[in-house]
């Protein structure tokens, strides 16, 4: 455990488990499309409802970063996130018929909840982690966001078989409530900073390095979204029965990388990890397009998870390193906003590409775009 010395402090552990419970609350709603369909909703209804959270998140993320830099206590934003998560689950628990505006409202609330709680928790972690262990600490924090992506829907499916969606929404609400006792154990970091160094978001975006990171994050997020959204239907089109093998391998690989090699960019430098990881991530998306069987799907999941496991913490750590502490919240929100815009745009664009040209062509085109992004990035990135 010597590798994690200085990371798992009381405050880090508490905020990480708050994030874990709230992520469990959010990820059980991966089953929400099934509920909409059961109530007679169409695919377009599902798209509007599920996309609503992305829209509200894109609006709320910059606000949460801005408030953080104004020294609004992160505890307050985390508390707002917890309450909104519980409220959204509670409203869903009381529904008995299809109501598209109401369901979209639930997802809007969840988007705001996620933005405030996750952004505030991430900034909290960035402030308390020692600089020399920054990528490792952010990576370990991320592990407790990755695990619910597999655990939340899996537990939800078990509950669904026995108690229908009433049980699923009740479980989601319970996960939100589980974060409350931990919230009272959280102590706000005492970092004040120098208010004269604060900049607006537009001023931060004038930094060439920040523009390069933001654009590459947006494009790489498109690859991330393409895989997570379209691998299930692609695998089904191939007649593969075990679709979840991709997500299992992705989760195991990403978590393992962050546990056993999460400190690599801290010791070698960000650039030496970001450049090869970005190349490998691009190739992993192209690789998905070459899959024909379950073994290939598993291999694609392992490469996809490992490359993203290295890339994401190293990229966000570089953003933190390159900006003044007083602009930490806005800098991280720009990074997160780029990622969210990329995933939102990708879900729409890749749907049209897959429909018009087929899944394989879609993955090849997205992977090719990522490769072009890599070529530009490695040429101009100073690190």
What would you say the CATH architecture of the largest domain is? Up-down Bundle
Global Rg:
20 Å
Give the beta-strand count. Answer: 0
How would you spell out the order of helices and strands? HHHHHHHHHHHHHH
Textual characterization of the structure:
By secondary structure, the protein is mainly α. The protein has 2 domains: 1-185, MFS general substrate transporter like domains (Growth Hormone, Chain: A), CATH 1.20.1250.20; 201-383, Growth Hormone, Chain: A (Up-down Bundle). Helix content is 80%, strand content 0%. It has 14 helices and no strands. It has helices spanning 10-27, 32-38, 43-69, 74-94, 100-128, 134-183, 201-204, 208-237, 245-260, 264-268, 270-288, 294-322, 328-357, 359-380. Helix 2 (32-38) packs antiparallel against helix 3 and helix 9 packs across helix 12. The longest helix has 50 residues, at 134-183. The radius of gyration is 20 Å and the shape is globular.
Short description:
The chain is mainly alpha-helical. It has 2 domains: 185 residues, Growth Hormone, Chain: A, CATH 1.20.1250.20; 183 residues, Up-down Bundle (Growth Hormone, Chain: A).
Observed structural traits:
383 residues, mainly alpha, Growth Hormone, Chain: A, 2 domains, 14 helices, 0% strand
């Amino acid at each position: 455990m010597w590798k994690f010395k200085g990371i798992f402090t009381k405050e880090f552990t508490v905020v990480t488990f708050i994030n874990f419970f709230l992520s469990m609350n959010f990820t059980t709603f991966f089953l929400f499309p099934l509920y909409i369909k059961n109530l007679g909703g169409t695919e377009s209804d599902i798209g509007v409802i599920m996309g609503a959270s992305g829209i509200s998140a894109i609006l709320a993320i910059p606000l949460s970063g801005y408030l953080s830099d104004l020294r609004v206590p992160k505890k307050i934003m985390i508390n707002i996130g917890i309450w909104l998560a519980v409220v959204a689950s509670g409203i869903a628990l009381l529904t008995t018929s299809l109501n598209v505006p109401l369901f979209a409202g639930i997802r809007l609330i969840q988007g705001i909840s996620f933005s405030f709680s996750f952004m505030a928790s991430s900034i909290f972690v960035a402030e308390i982690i020692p600089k020399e262990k920054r990528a490792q600490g952010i990576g370990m924090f991320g592990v407790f966001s990755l695990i619910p992506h597999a655990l939340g829907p899996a537990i939800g499916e078990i509950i669904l078989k026995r108690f229908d969606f009433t049980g699923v929404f009740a479980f989601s609400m319970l996960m939100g409530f589980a974060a409350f006792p931990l919230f009272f154990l959280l102590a706000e970091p005492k970092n004040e900073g120098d208010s004269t160094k604060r900049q607006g978001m537009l001023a931060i975006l004038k930094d060439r390095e920040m523009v390069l990171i933001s654009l590459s994050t947006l494009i790489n997020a498109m690859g991330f979204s393409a895989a997570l959204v379209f691998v299930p239907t692609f695998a089904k089109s191939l007649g593969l029965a075990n679709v979840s093998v991709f997500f299992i391998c992705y989760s195991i690989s990403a978590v393992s990388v962050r546990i056993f090699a999460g400190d690599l960019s801290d010791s070698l430098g960000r650039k030496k990890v970001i450049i090869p990881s970005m190349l490998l991530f691009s190739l992993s998306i192209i690789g998905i397009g070459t899959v024909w069987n379950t073994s290939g799907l598993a291999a694609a999941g392992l490469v996809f998870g490992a490359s993203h496991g290295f890339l994401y913490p190293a990229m966000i750590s570089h953003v933190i390193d390159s900006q003044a502490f007083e602009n930490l919240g806005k800098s991280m929100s720009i990074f997160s906003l780029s990622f969210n815009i990329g995933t939102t745009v990708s879900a729409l664009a890749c749907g049209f590409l897959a429909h018009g040209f087929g899944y394989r062509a879609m993955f090849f085109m997205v992977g090719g775009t990522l490769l072009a992004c890599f070529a530009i990035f490695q040429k101009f990135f100073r690190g």
